Amino acid sequence: MIKNRIESRFPRHLLEEAIRTALAEDLGLAGDITSHAVIAPDETMSAQIRSREKGIVAGLPLALAAFRQHDPHLELVQKKADGDKVAPGDVVLEVQGNSRSVLAAERVALNFLCHLSGIASLTARFVEQVKGTKAAICCTRKTLPGLRAFQKYAVHAGGGQNHRYGLDQAILIKDNHIASAGGIRQVLDKVRSHASHMVRVEIEVDGLEQLQEVLRYKVDAVLLDNMPPETLKKAVELIEGQALAEASGGVNLETVRAIAESGVDLISVGALTHSAPVFDFGLDFQI
To answer: What fold characterizes domain 7-128+276-286?
Structure first.
């Protein structure tokens, strides 16, 4: 198998269960009744998964596992690694063996590969847009249930970074928390009495006045929500390195460059995981 630094991040402890669930969902109680009807039990085939467009690969460990879990006797040759660039016609995986087995696992393999490569490719486009600035592109918790670890891995494959994985990983104080606690001072006092010294604290602000109040206290990061680039620049000047500056809200490929040029450290983009288009891979075969 081809390996690289990206695949060292792959959540392998979740792989088998994810594939098992996906295959069970697709094969149902009777398996692939179409292939059983029209393909002889001993027929074999050679197949290649090819890219139909330009982008970044992610999800090959899942594609490999789909074929292997359904039929351990299939011969698999990985031609690309996650994080690699591909162009139309590039082969990423070769599969050889029982025809029924290849077709039974094909859709599960392609579903993971196409979805995660779409995330990686969209992330790479955002990363390219902010090239030359100090801003890092981050994903959020706006992920599909059960797929968060794989989707966040795909963001890494595209050159992005991850925000917190779950609610238990860091403290992120948002407007509803501030309102519930009675204000910024009150909410930060409560956080200090509750949080371990190992937990980082970030707080969301929606204006410069609120930011000035926050800066009276020690926090690790400030989430600058839905601010135009000119306001973001003033916010970065006020923060003056006292905390990480993260921009969020209304970020797309047209706006991200101006946001990055404001001087923020991080730009979080929910669209990386909740709106990435599916990448076009196809399986071509010969009997």
So the answer is: Aldehyde Oxidoreductase; domain 3 (3.90.1170)
Q: Could you tell me what percent of the chain has a pLDDT over 70?
A: 98
For 268, phi then psi, to 5°, come to -95, 135
Q: What pLDDT is stored for residue 1 in this prediction? A: 45
- List active site positions: 107, 142, 174, 204, 225
Q: How confident is the model at residue 250 (pLDDT cuts 50, 70, 90)?
A: confident
Pick the CATH number of 131-274 from 3.20.20.140, 1.10.10.570, 3.40.980.20, 3.20.20.70: 3.20.20.70
Tell me the pTM: 0.95
Q: Where are the domains of the chain?
A: 7-128+276-286, 131-274
Mean pLDDT (the chain) is: 95
Segment 195-218 shows an average pLDDT of 93
